[in-house]
Amino acid sequence: MGEFELIATYFGGAPLARARLGIGDDCALLGDLAPGHCLAVSTDLLVAGRHFFDDVAPADLGWKSLAVNLSDLAAMGAEPMAFTLALALPSVDEGWLAGFSSGLFALAARHGCELVGGDTTRGPLTIGITIIGQVPVGQALRRDLGQAGDDLWVSAPLGAAAYAVQQRLSGQRLPAGHPACCRLDRPEPRVALGVALRGLAHAAIDLSDGLLGDLGHLCRRSSVGARVDWPEVPVHPALEGLAPHTRRRLALAGGDDYELLFSAPPAARERVARLRLPGGGSPARIGALVAEPGIRVLDADGNPIDTDDLAAFDHFR
Ligand code: ADP
Ligand code: MG
After folding, report:
1. Going along the chain, which residue ranges are E strands?
2. Nearest ligand, CA 117
3. From ligand 1's centre to the CA of 79, what distance in Å?
4. Which of 70, 119, 126, 302 has the most beta carbons within 10 angstroms of its beta carbon?
């Protein structure tokens, strides 16, 4: 199977509802941006052995490759429109391609996001997606608009994906279908929540590298500090029964949650608390932004918890 047949078989052919021209020409053409909107564009690269285990199910990989990009749109309050797919493949494995594209298109269909182009080459398995969405001008949930005094919220319980990674790395693989594996393999990008937070939240970021690390990014960009009340941080039930320090490390510093972390003024508190996620549940208020720089994590008695050992993931460190 050649390059063009591969593209047509596994990635082409879906009817377009939004784009004017999709796969097959030198460029895709997108039109009909809603009046008063700007484009939101983001790219994520997934490399085998670095961002996913080599033996991950191809359908899960297809899902997750798009999910991490949709999560970036969610974190801006943007509505998905289209994406492109750059693929490096070591060989043409039709079973793998069928699985990968099924997972990819399953999530794309849920969010009305169209594949409009890409590039395909031979090489070590690498997946690069660029996603395009739209957001009303002035309403994007940027990292740099947090204010001291804002409440700090997280969309859903944390730590399960990192727990699945930890078990896997220690050789104690969790059974397939375990809730922690589902959280790692098929994250649910919080697109509807991001859109609902327009006009309510001041700042937002999606949690890919761990709560404390990503909160640090938001704080630096907004020139504020933060207080996190550890007893208020929702911890995923899959972590029940683990040693307290392990639960805390996974929830505060584990990565791959793809939940939203956002700040909103106290005046918006009741409206935020009433928001509902698709699977049930509501955002949890876990602390506040403060004027003094730095992040302090407090225990139930208001005493600071030492978090020096909880550094966020950095690819070049
Ligand atoms: P060009 O040489 O003009 O860059 P290509 O030959 O690489 O075009 O690709 C042919 C068409 O197939 C283009 O429209 C491109 O966007 C699309 N395409 C290539 N690879 C993929 C892919 N993995 N997924 C979706 N579309 C793809
Ligand atoms: Mg090309």
Report:
1. 19-21, 29-30, 37-47, 79-89, 114-122, 126-136, 151-154, 203-206, 225-229, 260-264, 284-290, 295-298, 304-305
2. 1
3. 24
4. 70
